[in-house]
Each structure stands twice: as structure tokens, then as C-alpha cells.
Amino acid sequence: MAKSKAGSFFRPYDDRTQPTRKIRGYPGTQKRTPARLYARVISIADATGPRFTPDDVAPEEADLSREAPDRPRALGQLISLSGRVLDEAGRPIPDCLIEIWHANSAGKYIHHNDPSPVPVDANFRGRGRVVTDAQGRWQVRTVKPGGYAVPDAAPGATIGWWRPPHIHVSVFGAHFAARLVTQIFFPGDVLNDQDLILNAIPDKAARARMICRYLPHTTSNSAEGDVALRFAHDLVLRGRFETPFEKH
């Protein structure tokens, strides 16, 4: 258990609720996992910052389905993803900066290191930001990402392994000690059961906290007639029911 100079206590992480650092069959995790970890004292800076406001992001950053407001919509299944950011006691956390990024509907990232041969969608923004409101609520509009074949190939790698559709999320909570980087998966996808990252979390209940909920009612943009499927996902910072986070 770590204690900051500000007197704040944080419970230690339960390793069974978090992904293993080195995932067998996924060589990338072997390369970027430190051979040794060193404990450090949480400083006053870790426990008191950063601070964000809604003015720190532009409204259009919450819409990944368009490169710009006046551009055509990206190809794919339009979705709305919303939720709350909560602390371990279920209290909402306002003014959290949430950054998200994911592949386009064909499974291609907007990144020069993505070797996938599938096409880039010029109308897909690919990344977005939003700040939680006073009730800890957030919402983004995007297209559902496609699955993709894992490019890593090495002895012991799983042959034919595909990653399921997923969304990467970074959350800056009330302080740096509550920083969360995780992934959101979609319910019922056939690739979820074979995903090495999702299933690197030993605890079944913790794995379930990475899968968003489908909401049966659609939402529409009356100005354009676009109808989006709705999903919801709450993010919990620290504590017993925290959202599993990436360590590598």
C-alpha cells in the first residue's frame, strides 16, 4: 500500500483482476515488459493533478465518425458510446479527460506502424477526446471498429489469431495515480473468447468489466437522418471494482 505526501492511501492492485504483463503467444508484450519493477513513493504531484475543463477540448473531438464536421461520415456501423467515470465508492468523477482511439471499420489504424493491407478511410478521424461533466458522464460518436489479424509472428505465437473489435481508452482521473489506460470490447463478439489480451485477465468478473453494454434503443442525428447503435460503459478508477488497465 502506497502513501503519498498528501496523506492519500491507495489499495494495492489485485493481479488476478489485471492482465498479465507477458502474454504467451503475443511477442509484443515480451519486448515492452520491464525485466524488473521498482516501487516508488507517490508524490504530492501524483495525488493532486492534473486538472481539465470542458474548454480544453473542442466539441467535434467527440465525433470520430468524421474527420471534420463538414466532411462526409466514415464507412461502417455508426455507434454511440457513453458512460460514466466513477471512483471505488461509485461516486462520479467530473472533469476527467478521456482519450479514445481505434481501428476503422476495416480494422486499420491511422498509424504509420500499422502493416495491415486493408484500406485507410479518409473520412475517419481515428482518435477523439472528451471531458466528463459534473455527474462523471461522457459520450462519443464513432463507427464500430473492425477486427484484424495480429501482425506479430514468432515461435510460440498463436496461428490465425485475430483481435476482436475494441476501443482503446485513456483516462486522466482526479490525479496521476488514478490514470487508467484500458480497452473496451463489444458484447457477443465471437473473437472475444480467443483474444489473448482480454483473456490474459485471470478473473472472469474482471474480464466482464472490459465489455460494454448494448442499449436496445438507437439514437439519431435528426439533421442528417443518421441512426447509431448505442453502447454504454462505465470506467472505475482504483478500488476493488476498478476497470482492468494495461501495464505494458
Task: Draw up the topology in text.
Blueprint: E1 2-3, E2 9-10, H1 27-31, H2 44-48, E3 78-87, E4 97-101, E5 127-131, E6 137-143, E7 148-149, E8 162-163, E9 166-172, E10 180-185, H3 204-208, E11 213-221, E12 226-232, E13 235-237
Parallel strand pairs: 3-12, 3-13
Antiparallel strand pairs: 1-2, 3-6, 4-5, 4-9, 7-8, 9-10, 11-12
Give a concise summary.
The chain is mainly beta. The chain has helices spanning 27-31, 44-48, 204-208; strands spanning 2-3, 9-10, 78-87, 97-101, 127-131, 137-143, 148-149, 162-163, 166-172, 180-185, 213-221, 226-232, 235-237. It is built from three helices and 13 strands.
Tally of individual helices? 3
The portion of residues forming beta strands comes to: 25-35%
Which sequence of SSEs, written as H and E, runs from N to C?
EEHHEEEEEEEEHEEE
How widely separated are the two ends? 21 Å
Averaged pLDDT: 84
Any idea what the radius of gyration is? 19 Å
Residue stretches low in confidence (pLDDT < 50, at least 5 long) are 1-9
Helix content: under 10%
Helix/strand-derived category reads: mainly beta
Number of strands: 13
Assign an overall shape. Answer: globular
Q: Give a quick account of the main beta sheet: strands, pairing sense, barrel closure.
A: 5 strands, mixed
